[in-house]
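Box 3.1 A note on notation
Throughout this textbook, protein chains are presented in two layers. The first layer is the amino acid sequence; the second is a token string describing backbone geometry. Keep the layers aligned when reading.
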Amino acid sequence: MLFDPFPEYKPRDFVFKIARTPQELQGYWNLRRDVFCEEQGVFVEHDRDEVDDHAIPIICATLVAGMVDEVVGTVRIDERQPRLWYGSRLCVHKAHRRLTEMSPGVSVRNHQPVHRGFGALGAGLIYKAVSTANAIGCDRFLANVQEQNARFFQRLHWLKLEEKVLHGRVHAHMEAELGHYPPAELVA
């Protein structure tokens, strides 16, 4: 009993924010590489492209003692025409995809709803992405979503417009219903 292994610690406290510090940005790039290159094999060495030159990087990070610890989710947003925004490179660390509970403070701290059940961090990143663009000035928010994730987005008030093949994979071209994503607070 004394020497029984302790269960692995899994943080339940998160912050959704624009990545600004060198640590946050490094975690953002590392996670994207891990998911899109290593895990999915969509890209070879890195997934960076010309969109990254002007995109806003958004992260979900674990909090330990109130401080950012590890980046466990990413998405980027960019304005491609006046008031037309896109979200892309959404990913969540494999160990956090099946998260079903978050601390009660997550909603208050992030000024956004907390989604329960599988996909909670992905839903939080989507909410932060669209509501951030909405705060900056957005009339339409679009994304090309890997086909296996289209139903998840539809549950979050997205409309499927058409199918496209990108990077050798079928994607759903989708649009967010902006009324479900009020403008975010831009301080975090």
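The chain has a mean pLDDT of 90. The domain at 14-180 is CATH 3.40.630.30 (Aminopeptidase).
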